[in-house]
């Protein structure tokens, strides 16, 4: 049973245990990280954290008290010169224990103990991003700020719109000139309408020539009877030609008979 067992003796006598923890504390302050067993690390955490709290007040008395535990001038100067400024804003919890597995020989549980403020990777990961918006406890303050911001924006918009309005006024005479030009454009549009009678007269002229073309078409019809008469004369000549041949044959027969 573990009744009243507040201190882990670590299988050592008091003198040996104190010397071992003092040496481990000096190593931790100098190197900022050491590897040891989990039991020794837990004992070292209880031993070294009060010394780190004492180093926040840099006085001769606190230096002598810390030196009584560490028994090393180099460790004391390192603690008060480098470590104390970094842990000044931290209210306790200066060390971190990270388990790294079991030891090969006796299968003891090993860990790494380090000073929290000297692990830059973990510090950067733990830092939350700064919020850009601020929230006030009173809702009226935020509404008042919003109203002032909107009024300021409206003023800036009116200032920006004023030159635009002047520019529009300057453009108004241009629009009037465009209106004056409108009758001219209408007159131009009316001019082609006046030319339409000429185009109609041109279109009518071919219609007047149409009787001539009809007369030309009728002339071939009049010549058609003449061509037919010529064809009939040729056919009659062909008919008369055999008669002449018959008469020539009769003459030849008469001569032979004679």
Explain the overall architecture:
Helices cover 71% and strands 8% of the residues. Strands 1-3-2 form a three-stranded antiparallel sheet. Among the domains are: 113 residues, 50s Ribosomal Protein L17, Chain: A; 49 residues. The radius of gyration is 65 Å and the shape is elongated. The longest helix has 56 residues. The N and C termini lie far apart (189 Å). It is mainly alpha-helical.
Highlighted features:
258 residues, mainly alpha, 50s Ribosomal Protein L17, Chain: A, three-stranded antiparallel beta sheet
Largest sheet: 3 strands, antiparallel
Strand portion:
5-15%
Look at the helices and sheets and give the structural class: mainly alpha
Helical amount among residues, as a percent range?
Answer: over 70%
Q: How many β strands by DSSP?
A: 3
Give the terminus-to-terminus CA distance.
189 Å
Low-confidence stretches: 191-195
Class of the domain at 14-126 in CATH?
A: Alpha Beta
| CATH H level, superfamily name of the domain at 14-126 | Ribosomal protein L17
Tally the helices.
8
Shape label: elongated
| CATH-level-2 architecture of the domain at 14-126 | Alpha-Beta Complex
Give the topology string: H per helix, E per strand.
HEHHHEEHHHH
Radius of gyration: 65 Å
Q: Could you name the CATH topology of the domain at 14-126? A: 50s Ribosomal Protein L17, Chain: A
């Amino acid at each position: 049973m573990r009744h009243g067992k507040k201190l882990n003796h670590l299988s050592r006598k008091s003198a040996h245990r104190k010397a071992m923890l003092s040496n481990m504390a000096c190593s931790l302050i100098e190197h900022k990280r050491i590897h040891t067993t989990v039991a020794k690390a837990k004992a070292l955490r209880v031993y070294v954290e009060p010394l780190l709290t004492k180093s926040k007040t840099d006085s001769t008395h606190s230096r002598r008290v810390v030196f009584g535990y560490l028994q090393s001038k180099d460790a004391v100067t390192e603690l008060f010169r480098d470590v104390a400024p970094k842990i000044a804003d931290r209210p306790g919890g200066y060390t971190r224990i990270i388990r790294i597995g079991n030891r090969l020989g006796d299968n003891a549980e090993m860990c790494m103990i380090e000073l929290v403020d000297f692990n830059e990777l973990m510090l950067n990961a733990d830092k939350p991003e700064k919020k850009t918006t601020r929230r006030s406890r009173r809702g009226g303050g935020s509404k008042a700020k919003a109203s002032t911001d909107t009024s300021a924006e409206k003023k800036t918009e009116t200032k920006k719109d004023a030159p635009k309005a002047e520019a529009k006024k300057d453009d108004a005479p241009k629009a009037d000139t465009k209106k004056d030009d409108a009758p001219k454009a209408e007159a131009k549009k009316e001019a082609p309408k006046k030319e339409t009678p000429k185009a109609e007269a041109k279109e009518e002229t071919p219609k007047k020539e149409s009787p001539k073309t009809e007369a030309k078409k009728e002339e071939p019809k009049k010549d058609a009877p003449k061509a037919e008469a010529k064809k009939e004369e040729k056919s009659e000549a062909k008919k008369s030609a055999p008669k002449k041949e018959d008469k020539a044959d009769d003459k030849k027969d008469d001569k032979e008979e004679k």
